[in-house]
């Protein structure tokens, strides 16, 4: 299966390096490669893509605004942020907008390829510093119990979504960090079945990414990680 990748990066040398890395893989192809916000917006509306590599600091616009634009055209597209900006505000805004991964610039070519493979296999690649910020944000949704430990705050949502027992198992496995393939092996399901469950989870929670699903399920008290 051919994987079509769009790239939005304003630094010409970095853009060229990304293009070379992708072109070196047999089943990967470049849908478009550009360095400006308005060029990217037009390209996204014209070219079908499976993955978007997105820089945030574009000269004519905020890269984050391209995330919902992309997902509106291609709901199953995986958006991978590669940026010099690692502050909490940008990280959380990208996650809430639907990004599937977030890397700080400085990745080697082989590392980038590995992160892309992880992304396509259902993973959510993140630089260690970014993962810490996401975990910190998740802790904001926890409350201390009487033993001094933390448990996820249980809220009552009478009309909230109802995930099946298998969907909850799959979501819990994704929360731990398993790929789709690992979930399939662990739960003795086919890969297509896992993907079906994930699609159903996203639909019920009105989200577009693993991280959004975890955050939303946690806030609503339907994800028990104990």
UniProtKB/TrEMBL annotation:
Claim: Transcription is one of the keywords in the record: yes
Residues in Response regulatory domain copies: 4-120
Name of this protein: DNA-binding response regulator
Domain of life: Bacteria
Gene3D superfamilies, per the entry: 3.40.50.2300
This protein's UniProt keywords: DNA-binding, Phosphoprotein, Transcription, Transcription regulation
Pfam families: GerE, Response_reg
Transmembrane segments: none
GO MF entry, a single one: DNA binding
Lineage: Bacteria, Pseudomonadati, Pseudomonadota, Betaproteobacteria, Burkholderiales
Modified residues (4-aspartylphosphate): 55
Residues annotated as domain HTH luxR-type: 156-221
Originating species: Undibacterium macrobrachii
